[in-house]
User: Fold this.
Amino acid sequence: MEKEHASVKTHCSPELQNKWIEIQDSLKKSLKIEDDFSWKIPTSEVQNLEINTENLDSRAILKYVGGVDVSFSKTDPSIACATLVVLDLNTLQVVYEDFSTVQLDIPYVPGFLAFREAPVLLDLLEKMKKGSLPFYPQILMVDGNGLLHPRGFGLACHLGVLANVPTVGIGKNLHHVDGLNQSRVRQLLEAEGNLSKDVFTLIGDSGSTLGAAIRSTQDALKPIFISVGHRVSLASAIKIVKMSCRFRVPEPIRQADIRSKACLRIHGLS
DNA sequence: GCGACAG
DNA sequence: ATCTTGTCGC
Assistant:
């Protein structure tokens, strides 16, 4: 009888984890956490109309927002469907979608999600770019964290750096990091005077700003967790996320998730 | 040292 | 991530 724990703790060799940590630390040197893009974020409807006399700003307006997600087969947990969608920010309609069904042998290890999911997502992005396909995303929303990560380099950062595209991390659950945990977030949201607030900056014990918890919809009790991925500031990331929310989960991520699962069904998995 | 821990 | 029923909302 092996000395296997009855629990389902995920772990892999310390050697591999050390190697992964080196890669994260190395890639992190290329990380940019301020706005680094040529377009401008749309503000009010009025300003987008050309009746505005201040036409000195010739930058393009953000229009194409991407979203990526990976779903897994319940029958064979190693089979995954990775999905890339691009939405028109004005209509929140999908203008592009692509899938890749693959076998993933690398396990999910907290803190190392990128080593499992980034490769296939990168393939989808590179395929779109090399094919000169239209609607290549000006910014990409990723199902996972960015700076809100044990070493400040989650999947959103990882993908952003390798694809050299602006990214924002979207977590549906809090990754406990730097002293941040559910009870502290709960305490933030329920604090007197914060009942009507919808954005809560997340500052760790170290004093650094790791991201923000936001109530994306009025009726959403449970927040989502936004963090900087690459080439975008937290303030800009929050603005863009707010513009893409019809429901709690921002539409690019939500559509990627829905279509990813539909893709598995069509292929007889599910 | 042990537990907690995005998807 | 995935396993699941009913239920509420648009």
